[in-house]
Design brief:
By secondary structure, the chain is mainly alpha-helical. It has one domain. The chain is built from 8 helices and no strands. Helix 7 (189-206) runs antiparallel to helix 8 (209-230). The protein starts with 9 loop residues before the first helix and ends in a 7-residue tail after the last helix.
Length: 237
Protein backbone atom coordinates (compact mmCIF):
# COMPACT_ATOMS: atom_id res chain seq x y z
CA UNK A 1 0.00 0.00 0.00
CA UNK A 2 1.42 3.35 -0.97
CA UNK A 3 1.66 5.82 1.91
CA UNK A 4 0.88 9.22 0.48
CA UNK A 5 0.41 11.58 3.41
CA UNK A 6 3.57 10.89 5.40
CA UNK A 7 4.79 14.42 4.69
CA UNK A 8 2.49 16.89 6.46
CA UNK A 9 0.51 18.76 3.76
CA UNK A 10 0.98 22.16 5.38
CA UNK A 11 4.72 21.83 4.81
CA UNK A 12 4.01 21.59 1.09
CA UNK A 13 1.39 24.34 0.69
CA UNK A 14 2.33 26.92 3.30
CA UNK A 15 -0.80 26.75 5.45
CA UNK A 16 0.74 29.32 7.77
CA UNK A 17 -0.64 32.09 5.56
CA UNK A 18 -3.79 31.85 7.70
CA UNK A 19 -1.91 33.19 10.73
CA UNK A 20 -1.41 29.88 12.49
CA UNK A 21 -0.84 26.45 10.92
CA UNK A 22 -3.60 24.87 13.03
CA UNK A 23 -6.34 27.15 11.70
CA UNK A 24 -7.12 25.16 8.51
CA UNK A 25 -7.58 22.05 10.64
CA UNK A 26 -9.47 23.58 13.55
CA UNK A 27 -11.63 26.39 12.13
CA UNK A 28 -14.31 24.28 10.36
CA UNK A 29 -14.70 21.98 13.38
CA UNK A 30 -14.98 24.96 15.75
CA UNK A 31 -17.58 26.58 13.47
CA UNK A 32 -19.50 23.30 13.29
CA UNK A 33 -19.65 22.98 17.10
CA UNK A 34 -20.72 26.61 17.41
CA UNK A 35 -23.51 26.19 14.87
CA UNK A 36 -24.59 22.96 16.52
CA UNK A 37 -24.98 24.83 19.80
CA UNK A 38 -26.95 27.80 18.49
CA UNK A 39 -29.07 26.37 15.67
CA UNK A 40 -31.98 25.51 18.00
CA UNK A 41 -32.24 29.17 18.96
CA UNK A 42 -32.38 30.46 15.39
CA UNK A 43 -35.97 31.50 14.53
CA UNK A 44 -35.79 30.00 11.02
CA UNK A 45 -37.33 26.85 9.55
CA UNK A 46 -34.83 24.01 10.25
CA UNK A 47 -34.52 23.07 6.59
CA UNK A 48 -33.16 26.53 5.80
CA UNK A 49 -30.94 26.41 8.89
CA UNK A 50 -29.30 23.21 7.66
CA UNK A 51 -28.90 24.69 4.17
CA UNK A 52 -27.17 27.78 5.57
CA UNK A 53 -25.13 25.56 7.90
CA UNK A 54 -23.92 23.45 4.98
CA UNK A 55 -23.00 26.48 2.87
CA UNK A 56 -21.07 28.17 5.69
CA UNK A 57 -19.04 25.09 6.60
CA UNK A 58 -18.45 24.11 2.99
CA UNK A 59 -17.26 27.65 2.33
CA UNK A 60 -14.75 27.39 5.17
CA UNK A 61 -13.49 24.08 3.84
CA UNK A 62 -13.08 25.51 0.34
CA UNK A 63 -11.25 28.63 1.49
CA UNK A 64 -9.50 28.21 4.82
CA UNK A 65 -8.92 24.44 4.77
CA UNK A 66 -8.48 23.75 1.07
CA UNK A 67 -4.63 23.76 1.20
CA UNK A 68 -4.53 20.89 3.71
CA UNK A 69 -7.35 18.70 2.37
CA UNK A 70 -5.86 15.65 0.60
CA UNK A 71 -7.65 14.05 -2.33
CA UNK A 72 -5.45 11.08 -3.28
CA UNK A 73 -6.97 7.98 -1.70
CA UNK A 74 -4.53 5.10 -1.48
CA UNK A 75 -6.95 2.26 -0.72
CA UNK A 76 -10.48 2.81 -2.05
CA UNK A 77 -11.70 -0.73 -1.45
CA UNK A 78 -10.23 -1.10 2.04
CA UNK A 79 -11.51 2.30 3.14
CA UNK A 80 -14.98 1.62 1.72
CA UNK A 81 -15.24 -1.80 3.35
CA UNK A 82 -14.04 -0.44 6.67
CA UNK A 83 -16.61 2.36 6.43
CA UNK A 84 -19.40 -0.19 5.93
CA UNK A 85 -18.07 -2.28 8.83
CA UNK A 86 -18.07 0.76 11.14
CA UNK A 87 -21.66 1.50 10.14
CA UNK A 88 -22.62 -2.10 11.03
CA UNK A 89 -20.82 -1.72 14.34
CA UNK A 90 -22.71 1.51 15.02
CA UNK A 91 -26.18 -0.02 14.74
CA UNK A 92 -25.35 -3.56 15.94
CA UNK A 93 -26.09 -3.08 19.68
CA UNK A 94 -29.56 -1.66 18.98
CA UNK A 95 -30.39 -4.29 16.35
CA UNK A 96 -29.17 -7.27 18.35
CA UNK A 97 -30.37 -6.11 21.77
CA UNK A 98 -33.04 -3.35 21.55
CA UNK A 99 -33.17 -2.57 25.33
CA UNK A 100 -29.39 -2.16 25.43
CA UNK A 101 -29.25 1.62 25.12
CA UNK A 102 -31.86 2.23 27.80
CA UNK A 103 -29.23 1.50 30.44
CA UNK A 104 -28.23 4.40 32.67
CA UNK A 105 -24.83 4.26 30.97
CA UNK A 106 -26.36 5.69 27.80
CA UNK A 107 -29.48 7.40 29.11
CA UNK A 108 -28.75 10.03 31.74
CA UNK A 109 -28.67 13.78 32.37
CA UNK A 110 -25.02 14.07 31.35
CA UNK A 111 -25.13 12.19 28.05
CA UNK A 112 -28.77 12.76 27.14
CA UNK A 113 -31.04 10.11 25.68
CA UNK A 114 -30.72 7.93 22.57
CA UNK A 115 -33.64 9.55 20.80
CA UNK A 116 -34.04 12.19 18.15
CA UNK A 117 -34.66 15.78 19.23
CA UNK A 118 -35.80 16.77 15.74
CA UNK A 119 -39.31 17.99 15.02
CA UNK A 120 -41.22 15.03 13.50
CA UNK A 121 -42.42 17.29 10.68
CA UNK A 122 -38.84 17.35 9.35
CA UNK A 123 -39.21 13.74 8.24
CA UNK A 124 -41.22 15.03 5.28
CA UNK A 125 -39.04 18.10 4.57
CA UNK A 126 -37.05 17.45 1.41
CA UNK A 127 -34.94 20.56 2.02
CA UNK A 128 -33.95 19.36 5.47
CA UNK A 129 -33.23 15.79 4.35
CA UNK A 130 -31.06 16.87 1.41
CA UNK A 131 -28.90 19.23 3.45
CA UNK A 132 -28.78 16.89 6.45
CA UNK A 133 -27.34 14.23 4.15
CA UNK A 134 -24.91 16.69 2.56
CA UNK A 135 -23.70 17.82 5.97
CA UNK A 136 -23.27 14.20 7.10
CA UNK A 137 -21.52 12.87 4.00
CA UNK A 138 -19.63 15.89 2.67
CA UNK A 139 -18.84 18.33 5.46
CA UNK A 140 -18.62 16.24 8.62
CA UNK A 141 -16.12 13.59 7.43
CA UNK A 142 -13.75 16.30 6.20
CA UNK A 143 -13.96 18.67 9.15
CA UNK A 144 -13.80 15.88 11.76
CA UNK A 145 -10.87 14.08 10.16
CA UNK A 146 -8.98 17.34 9.72
CA UNK A 147 -9.47 18.12 13.40
CA UNK A 148 -9.14 14.73 15.10
CA UNK A 149 -6.64 12.85 12.99
CA UNK A 150 -5.10 15.57 10.85
CA UNK A 151 -4.34 17.93 13.72
CA UNK A 152 -5.05 16.72 17.27
CA UNK A 153 -3.39 13.29 16.97
CA UNK A 154 -0.22 15.06 15.85
CA UNK A 155 -0.49 18.04 18.20
CA UNK A 156 -0.70 15.74 21.22
CA UNK A 157 2.63 14.25 20.14
CA UNK A 158 4.24 17.65 19.59
CA UNK A 159 2.80 21.16 19.74
CA UNK A 160 4.88 21.81 16.65
CA UNK A 161 2.60 19.35 14.90
CA UNK A 162 3.91 20.23 11.44
CA UNK A 163 7.00 18.16 12.21
CA UNK A 164 4.89 15.09 13.04
CA UNK A 165 4.10 12.86 10.03
CA UNK A 166 0.52 11.96 9.27
CA UNK A 167 -0.36 8.69 10.98
CA UNK A 168 2.42 8.88 13.56
CA UNK A 169 1.58 6.65 16.52
CA UNK A 170 1.84 7.47 20.21
CA UNK A 171 -0.38 5.61 22.68
CA UNK A 172 -1.36 8.71 24.67
CA UNK A 173 -2.32 10.62 21.53
CA UNK A 174 -4.14 7.64 20.01
CA UNK A 175 -6.37 6.95 23.02
CA UNK A 176 -6.94 10.57 24.01
CA UNK A 177 -8.35 11.28 20.56
CA UNK A 178 -10.46 8.11 20.68
CA UNK A 179 -11.97 9.10 24.06
CA UNK A 180 -12.63 12.69 23.01
CA UNK A 181 -14.18 11.47 19.77
CA UNK A 182 -16.45 9.21 21.85
CA UNK A 183 -17.52 12.11 24.08
CA UNK A 184 -18.69 13.99 21.00
CA UNK A 185 -21.33 11.32 20.36
CA UNK A 186 -23.38 11.55 23.55
CA UNK A 187 -25.50 8.47 24.26
CA UNK A 188 -23.60 6.59 21.58
CA UNK A 189 -20.25 7.09 23.30
CA UNK A 190 -19.57 3.34 23.38
CA UNK A 191 -19.68 2.82 19.63
CA UNK A 192 -18.13 6.27 19.28
CA UNK A 193 -15.13 5.07 21.28
CA UNK A 194 -14.68 1.96 19.15
CA UNK A 195 -15.18 4.00 15.99
CA UNK A 196 -12.61 6.56 17.12
CA UNK A 197 -10.10 3.79 17.77
CA UNK A 198 -10.79 2.20 14.37
CA UNK A 199 -10.42 5.48 12.49
CA UNK A 200 -7.23 6.22 14.44
CA UNK A 201 -5.90 2.77 13.56
CA UNK A 202 -6.74 3.31 9.88
CA UNK A 203 -4.87 6.61 9.99
CA UNK A 204 -1.80 4.87 11.46
CA UNK A 205 -2.18 1.98 9.01
CA UNK A 206 -2.57 4.02 5.82
CA UNK A 207 -0.92 7.30 6.87
CA UNK A 208 -3.53 8.81 4.58
CA UNK A 209 -5.98 11.45 5.76
CA UNK A 210 -7.82 11.11 2.45
CA UNK A 211 -8.52 7.44 3.20
CA UNK A 212 -9.87 8.34 6.65
CA UNK A 213 -12.13 11.01 5.16
CA UNK A 214 -13.45 8.57 2.56
CA UNK A 215 -13.98 5.83 5.16
CA UNK A 216 -15.83 8.26 7.43
CA UNK A 217 -17.99 9.46 4.52
CA UNK A 218 -18.97 5.87 3.66
CA UNK A 219 -19.99 5.23 7.28
CA UNK A 220 -22.09 8.39 7.41
CA UNK A 221 -23.63 7.68 4.03
CA UNK A 222 -24.68 4.17 5.10
CA UNK A 223 -26.12 5.58 8.31
CA UNK A 224 -28.10 8.20 6.37
CA UNK A 225 -29.63 5.45 4.19
CA UNK A 226 -30.45 3.44 7.31
CA UNK A 227 -32.07 6.40 9.08
CA UNK A 228 -34.29 7.22 6.12
CA UNK A 229 -35.14 3.68 5.00
CA UNK A 230 -35.78 2.24 8.48
CA UNK A 231 -37.17 5.37 10.17
CA UNK A 232 -34.36 5.26 12.75
CA UNK A 233 -34.10 8.98 13.38
CA UNK A 234 -32.47 8.58 16.78
CA UNK A 235 -29.14 8.42 14.95
CA UNK A 236 -29.72 11.95 13.72
CA UNK A 237 -29.97 13.63 17.12
Amino acid sequence: MKNIDTEPPESRVGAGIFGHPAIPYVAPFAAFILLLGVNRYVPVEPGYVYAIWFILIFGLLLTVSRPVIPFRISNYLGSALLGVAVFALWIAPDVLWPPYRQSWLFNNSLLGSPKSTLDPSLKSSLLFIVFRILNSVVNVPVLEELFWRGWLMRWLISTDFRKVPMGAYAAQSFWTVAVLFASEHGSYWDVGLVTGAIFNWWMVRTRSLADCIFCHAVTNGCLAVYVLSRDQWQYWL
